[in-house]
Every structure is written in structure tokens, then in C-alpha cells.
Design a protein that fits this description.
- By secondary structure, the protein is mainly alpha-helical.
- Helices cover about 70% and strands about 0% of the residues.
- The chain is built from three helices and no strands.
Length: about 90
């Protein structure tokens, strides 16, 4: 007879998506923020792949692509904090 080893405490997921997001530590707003950052990152990578043959134009477009990618990374890291200050504002 074999022994079973419990590696993790079972989580009741009968509540649906809210339980799932609680278990991964992300809210719906956080998921939307990460999705927006991912779309911006894909746009930035596409901008990098479509650089022109002219060095001056390529430098300008490449720097814009790097800046866009930087915005996507900052949004992915700090986006939930930025958007939480807007949604919790009191008038």
C-alpha cells in the first residue's frame, strides 16, 4: 500500500472565476491591466521588426519602438497601482 503525500492544500474553486483570481493573487482589473500591457508590447515588437533601410529613419522608428516597449513594461509592473488611484478617487 502506497502513501500519498499532500504537496499543497486543496482550494475550493466552487465560486468560479473569483476564486481562481484570488488564488493567483490577481483581480479582474489587474488582469485587464496586464492585457493592455501585453497588447502594447506586441505593438512595440512589431514596430521593431518593421524598421526602414534608411539609417536615420530606422533610428527614429527604433527609438519610438523602444520607448513604447518601456511604457508597456512600466504599465505591466505598476499599472494596477496607477489605475487603483484613479478608480478609488473621491470627488
Amino acid at each position: 500500500m502506497s502513501k500519498f503525500i499532500t504537496l499543497a492544500k486543496p482550494i475550493d474553486m466552487s465560486g468560479g472565476f473569483s476564486d481562481f483570481f484570488d488564488s493567483i493573487g490577481m483581480t479582474g482589473a489587474g488582469l485587464v491591466t496586464k492585457g493592455i500591457a501585453a497588447v502594447i508590447a506586441v505593438i512595440a515588437v512589431r514596430m521593431m521588426l518593421q524598421l526602414a533601410g534608411d539609417p536615420k529613419t530606422a533610428l527614429r522608428r527604433g527609438s519610438m519602438a523602444v520607448g513604447t516597449l518601456f511604457v508597456a513594461v512600466i504599465l505591466a509592473i505598476y499599472g494596477s497601482t496607477l489605475f487603483s488611484t484613479v478608480t478609488n478617487a473621491r470627488g
